[in-house]
Design brief:
The chain is mainly alpha-helical. It folds into 3 domains: 41 residues; 43 residues, no CATH class; 38 residues. It has 4 helices and no strands. Helix 1 packs across helix 2. The radius of gyration is 22 Å and the shape is flat. The mean pLDDT is 88.
């Protein structure tokens, strides 16, 4: 059924708490990685990607904090998220948003594969016509 206003507010507060908590953990891990980098150690590809994602999240946090700090500006957050979907740090994404991003990436890859298959087929036809 329909949830009450109190339940929705509590769920949103939990969502933001979890997002900030995950961002805090990512920041601590990234700090350790930066320390290792500064002391000449080499990061793995996975660690490098995590470090880049965390740095990007920290830069995205600045405009997001404006919505949290300024009173009643959080009501405009959905509008800005519609205009700028990549504005939120990755730790604040919901499962549905993650699935939607994966679906879009998969569709793009399928379109690229289709294009490449058609190109190869056309090249094969031309080679066959040239030799025949």
């Amino acid at each position: 059924g329909k949830r009450s206003l109190r339940q929705r507010v509590v769920e949103e507060m939990k969502h933001y708490y979890k997002g900030f908590h995950l961002l805090w953990i990512d920041t601590k891990v990234a700090t350790r990685m930066m320390w290792r980098l500064l002391h000449g150690q080499v990061l793995t590809r996975r660690e490098r990607r995590r470090l880049l994602r965390t740095c990007a999240d920290l830069f995205r946090l600045v405009p997001f904090l404006v919505f949290v700090i300024v009173p009643f500006m959080e009501f405009l957050l959905p509008v800005f998220l519609k205009l700028f979907p990549e504005m939120l740090p990755s730790t604040f994404e919901t499962e549905s948003k993650k699935e939607e991003k994966q679906r879009k990436k998969l569709n793009a890859k399928l379109e690229l594969a289709k294009f490449l298959r058609e190109t190869i087929t056309e090249m094969a036809r031309r080679n066959k016509a040239d030799t025949g």
